[in-house]
Amino acid sequence: MKSIIFCCILATFSFSSIYGQVSSAEQAVKKAEKKVADKMIEKTFNGLVNKLFGSDSTKTTENTSVRTDSTVTSNSSPFGGLFSSKTVDKEFKFDMTLDMEMVTKDKKGKGDVIYVKAHYSQDSAYIGTEMENIFNIMDFGDKKNYALMGGKVTIMNLESFIDKANKKAKKKEENEEIPEFTKTGKTEMVAGYKCDEYLVEDEDFTGHYYIANGIGLNPEVYAKTFDANPAINYPKDQRGVILKMVIENTKDKTTTTMITKEVIKQELNYDLSKYKATDLSKLF
């Protein structure tokens, strides 16, 4: 309940700070986290290694001045190309976009709005998320995460992340009851679509979910995207798509709202072979 796939949106600045662990919606929208993650992604692994080993510098000994080039790349020894990939023979096609706003407000009603686009494919189990200058793709087929930024793509393994999430959810199920979606009978128009309201409650949170049917997205594909976040007990027989959610933290009195402003039906293609790749999937 404390998290939902739309926080994977923020895989752009999550996934262990770079791609993120799916955390609570409150954590996902923290401005500070976003800034740190943007910076980390921009540097990528090569930049981080250079920082650890030091940049080009001139070291002076007693008798000579020695030029020391400590620049390290993914192809340098001892790495030997372990993390690099000349090309990624992968193409993603999206045919529907949810243009959304997310905001977490404190008990005083203050909070910053984050604008996010979630891209879906009608017949493929992957989701693209776009925020500012970062485009992130979570592929649940080959269980890989692809982050695109500045003409580069960084690849990370999604399988271990999903496995850990499933184990955590299973353990939680054994220790406590996972709250169910309850249909309230209320309806609301969101982005031009009629939505049914569902209520989810536990001791810490109260969540209102507004689910629309018939927007043209394959429900099986949509439900598959929840594999990365089993903490939310999304109904297996649900045929709709969440267009709005409001989560109230009963302890700290914060409220997180995600609302779809527009459902855009247009095709987007991403050919990853055109991007310079850094493959970190062998590490994690």
Automatic annotation (TrEMBL):
<feature type="signal peptide">
    <location>
        <begin position="1"/>
        <end position="18"/>
    </location>
</feature>
<dbReference type="Pfam" id="PF14371">
    <property type="entry name" value="DUF4412"/>
</dbReference>
<keyword id="KW-0732">Signal</keyword>
<dbReference type="InterPro" id="IPR025524">
    <property type="entry name" value="DUF4412"/>
</dbReference>
<protein>
    <recommendedName>
        <fullName>DUF4412 domain-containing protein</fullName>
    </recommendedName>
</protein>
<feature type="domain" description="DUF4412">
    <location>
        <begin position="98"/>
        <end position="216"/>
    </location>
</feature>
